[in-house]
Amino acid sequence: QGSTILQVRVATVGEEYILILADDHTEIARTEEVRNDFVANVSHELKTPVGAISLLSEALDDAAGDEEAVRRFAARMSKESARLTSLVQDIIELSRLQSTDMVDRAREVDLNQLVAEAVEANRLPAENRKTTVVVGGSVDGAVYGDAKMLTTAFRNLIDNAIRYSPEGSRVGIGLRSRDGMAQVSVTDQGPGINPEDQERIFERFYRIDSARSRHTGGTGLGLSIVKHVVSNHGGEVNLWSQPGQGSTFTVRLPEMESAEPSAEKQQQSD
Ligand code: ADP
Known about the structure:
Elements: E1 7-13, E2 16-22, H1 26-62, H2 67-99, E3 107-109, H3 111-121, H4 123-128, E4 132-137, E5 143-145, H5 147-163, E6 170-178, E7 181-188, H6 195-198, H7 210-215, H8 222-232, E8 236-241, E9 247-254
Parallel strand pairs: 4-6
Antiparallel strand pairs: 1-2, 3-5, 6-7, 7-9, 8-9
Bound molecules: adenosine-5'-diphosphate (ADP).
């Protein structure tokens, strides 16, 4: 039925070892499993705000006449619908990224400028948390890619660095070129990430502290979007972190050959 998973068992009969391999549908089965997990997670994540909105609308109905209560319920409804909106946006973004390895609207991208724009886009949240974002260094060459996707990825990393750090802290962004790769690192003074969580935080919907992440407005999809964007561009994202010592996320993207006679620049069309 396509749902069998590869089983490898080693049985011992007397002195002999028998290796039993079952099923050749491994790849299909795994894809199916991943898809089922995704659908289950999406349903679960959507049910929470939808359920809250539904309850709140009933409460709102009952509260008619009590102006203070009406205002309170309405404010919570608006918060839940904002959450629903960002969830739906992230889910759409992620499915788009997963459905293709190709980078749409690819063109020559100046990462120095793009990162500066991603910082600017996070200016308000940074101000709200009294966080200073400092950018240092620069990359030499351009990268070939989708500016919109790359902006989303860097915005997510900077947004996390601000959200998971204590108020009044500092986020450092470093740019440099090395071995033909453009390297952008985002360092925060947040709580850091345990070694056992470091691989898993790139998984869809994985959150270390789901209550806190929800409270801070997280969807659990930000880093998996980052990972997909970066790998769709032939790059990689790495994490260095130690509990209590903050985290550094480093993105590496291949730089374009600078010797190339100016690649045709396409006008960006949104
Ligand atoms: P979310 O929307 O919950 O922030 P992400 O995919 O962006 O989802 O991140 C997954 C989880 O990884 C977060 O819930 C948080 O627990 C952890 N995390 C991400 N970035 C940081 C960071 N800079 N410092 C500490 N923890 C982080």
